Amino acid sequence: MQPRKYVLLCAAALAILLPFGSMAEEKVDLYAIQRIRAEEREHSKVMDTLFYLSDVNGPRLTNTPNYFSAADWVVKQMKDLGLPAKAEKWGPFGRSWRVDKYYAAMSEPQYMPLIGFPLAWSGSTDGPITAEATIAAIYTEADMAKYKGKLKGKVVLATAPREIEQSTKPLSSRWSEAELADMEKYPEASERNQAAYRSRLPAPWQNLSRDELQTIRKKINEFFASEQVAAVLSYGYAGDDGTVFGSSAGSRETKDPVPPTSIVVTPEHYNRIYRLLSHNIPVKLDLDVKTEILEPQDSVNVIAEIPGAAKKDEIVMLGAHLDSWHGGTGATDNGAGSAVMIEAVRLLKTLNLRMERTVRLGLWGGEEEGLLGSKAYVKEHFGDPETMKLTSEHAKLDGYFNVDNGSGRIRGIYLQGNDMCRPIFEQWFSAFKDMDAKAITIRDTGGTDHLSFDAVGLPGFQFIQDELEYSTLTHHSNMDVYDHVSENDLKQAATIVAAFVYMTANRPEMLPRKPLPPPHPAPKHTEEEPSKGKPASGTADVAKPAK
Ligand SMILES: [Zn+2]
Predict the structure, then answer these.
(1) Burial of 545 (C-beta count, 10 Å sphere; 0-12/13-18/19+)
(2) Distance 333 CA to ligand 1 centre (A)
(3) How far apart are CA 458 and CA 515, in angstroms?
(4) Which of 304, 385, 427, 473 sits in a 20 to 30 Å window from 160, CA-based?
């Protein structure tokens, strides 16, 4: 057993600030923190882990072979550390799909290779083809009627070009002290973000509900398929300068038709083709897209744990989603978060720190499609938000910590409405003043896997992270790659996560819980409508209150 020296931090200051001992003093184990800091500073493996997740295994779209091989790789790492680990099944997910080949270029009136990639779950071209491009603005049933019989064998540009604005803001940013202070104030910013997202949709879609939007998109895909278009060309919902943001073309459900060949390209290339066509200059495209639909199978989450000591039946969880989109290699979303969590487990295990409670790692699949892996895990192990029927394990889950906002360092934590944890986290963060982490906001943040825990009344938290290039360059883009991950930021995050998990595992009491919610629908998070606080970019993961 390690020599232990507990230091009561800020006790004097707290005594002045807090009336009548309304807040317990937290034990901040500076000796353990010292060791965690030193191990991460001197022997970090976090970038090595990221390399294997992103460069070696590649993009980890759920249920692709890459996803399963990454999951197997993590299980092996955990076993090599001497920890029990497994890939735990959940499902069904829908189609398993992958890209085998992508070639796209304008061949007339000039040669121009197209920067882009096929959208998820879309179909192949019939080998290498040359096809005419055509503009067909299709948003409604009436638009479909107008173009019926006119699109066979064509590459369709269905949306208006995107105006490219000169970029005058830095691509990478960190939270300023003033922004963090603003975040710590109570008011929410969700409506503004939803409104901003809506305003970026084409005008005919701005007033549709989420379900109506999904329905019309599905109908348009079916229309394109029935018209036998050669392909559908689009640009991403964000990004320019060759950075292409894109996720899916439509449904992954095995019961639905496969969306037509759907290619997302950088808006500058889309715009050039559009301008040529608008001037009645014919455009031909050479395409060779091969996507593959594999046998459907259940998906997996990766679960590993460090068994606890005196209270080993009580569990502290840390997690991140292992899956990604496929335009890049999922390095910032969420190879970074996964690498941080794997590293935090490595730190705690390597240092052999005594922890009273069991520490369990959960790396989730299907986050990008709606928190599917973590929702399935919570339903199986802790309870169903729709009925609020809880399992016996529910009483034993102390808390869950999540990292999923890119590679930016930890600047604080979202309380997710749990004010009782504020004084606890404040005292823990007091040991990390030199690492710029201290902001605590009562706000909740959406779009990632802590929601699955929060939904059944379990303490689930996502950290506040610096934005860096997340919304400008990497989130669901072809530039979500290793080179855009900040090593120092990951090391800082792994250090703080390890310390938070350690202190949770050794607290005399479990973390305080909010009252149980009544039965309610499971948290949703779909591509079409980001949760509150997220940028307009689509699926998941960023929480950035309005500035
Ligand atoms: Zn994401």
Answers:
(1) buried
(2) 5
(3) 9
(4) 473
Cα 421 to ligand 1 centre (Å): 27
206-227 pLDDT tens trace:
889 888 988 999 999 999 999 9
359 vs 97: CA distance, rounded Å? 34
Residue 540's pLDDT band (cuts 50, 70, 90): very low
Helices (H) and strands (E) in the chain, counts: 14, 18
Centroid of ligand 1 to alpha carbon of 303 (angstroms) = 20
Largest Cα span, the chain: 79
Q: What value, to the nearest 5°, has the Cα angle with vertex 330 and ends 326 and 332?
A: 145
Distance from the CA of 538 to the center of ligand 1, in angstroms? Answer: 8
Count how many residues are written for the chain: 547
Q: Residue with structure tokens 């039965």?
A: 519
- Tell me the C-alpha distance between 234 and 227, whole Å: 18
- Between CA 257 and CA 167, with CA 134 as vertex, the angle to 5 degrees is 95
Residue 187: predicted pLDDT: 60
- Distant-in-sequence, close-in-space partners of 532: CB < 8 Å, separation ≥ 6: 188, 189, 190, 193, 194, 444, 445, 446, 543
How does pLDDT run across 147-189, given as a tens digit for each residue? Answer: 999 999 999 999 999 999 898 999 999 999 999 998 998 665 5
